[in-house]
Each structure stands twice: as C-alpha cells, then as structure tokens.
Amino acid sequence: MTDIETFYELVLVALLAVAAGRPQELKTPEDYGLLRSSSVTNEDGSFQYGYETSDPSSQDVAGQVKQFDEEKVGTVQQGSYTFTTQDENGNDVQVRVDWVADENGFQAQSDALPQAPEDPNAEAQAAALAKFSQIEAEKNQ
C-alpha cells in the first residue's frame, strides 16, 4: 500500500467519523405517541404512576402498604385504564375500567364488562333455605 492510498484511507475514515458524530434528530416521547407519563414513589411505600398515549389509551394507578392483620402486610392498589375499541357497527368506543386490588382480590368495574344474568331460581332457593333452616332449628329444640 502506498503512502497516498494510506492517506486516502485515513481521510475516508475521518469523514466517516465526522458523519457519524453529526447531531442526530432528537425524538421526543410525543413523537412516539406518549402524551403523559408520571411516576412517584414515596418514603412510606405508597406510589402513583400513570400514562396517556395518542391512540388514545391511558392508565393511572395508586398504591399503598396496608397491614392486613398482625402478621400480614401487603400492597393495595386502585386505578383505572382506558382504551378505544370498536362496537359491532365499527364505531370507535372509549372503554374505561376502574379497579381495586386488595385483600379481597382484583375487582374491576366497567360498563364494558359482561354482567351475569339474574338467577331465575333465586326466590325458590331462598325459600328452600328458609324451610331447611326452620327444620334444623326445630330439630335442635
């Protein structure tokens, strides 16, 4: 390799280094659809976080430490999330789900969640239980 070829290689490498080091276009979270994002953790163990995107969806959560009994300590949380879906006609519908997670488990509430039908036998079952309880009470007298 001649001195001139080595020189050209060095110039080429230098130009590549300058090109690679040029300022890049900076993207913001908004460029990726993130409109809001927050997170806070407190010294007592409680916390809050949330986000919102342009699609649109969002989530907000808060939690805190809870003493359940003398031995059990856990974290209880509550929050909500939203998203957009389509109904049977193809129209956009905003869905919101509010929820709690505690010693009773995860409990979600939303108009979008299916509801169990009413028990058609509830009245007959209640009457049978009352009759059974009456018979048991008479036996124990």
From TrEMBL:
GO molecular function annotation: structural constituent of chitin-based larval cuticle
Position of the signal peptide: 1-21
PROSITE patterns assigned to the protein according to its UniProt record, in alphabetical order: CHIT_BIND_RR_2
GO CC annotation terms, alphabetical: chitin-based extracellular matrix
Pfam families linked: Chitin_bind_4
UniProt key word rRNA-binding: no
Keyword Signal: yes
Keywords for this protein: Cuticle, Signal
Name the UniProt record assigns to this protein: Endocuticle structural glycoprotein SgAbd-1
Designated gene of the protein: CUD1_18
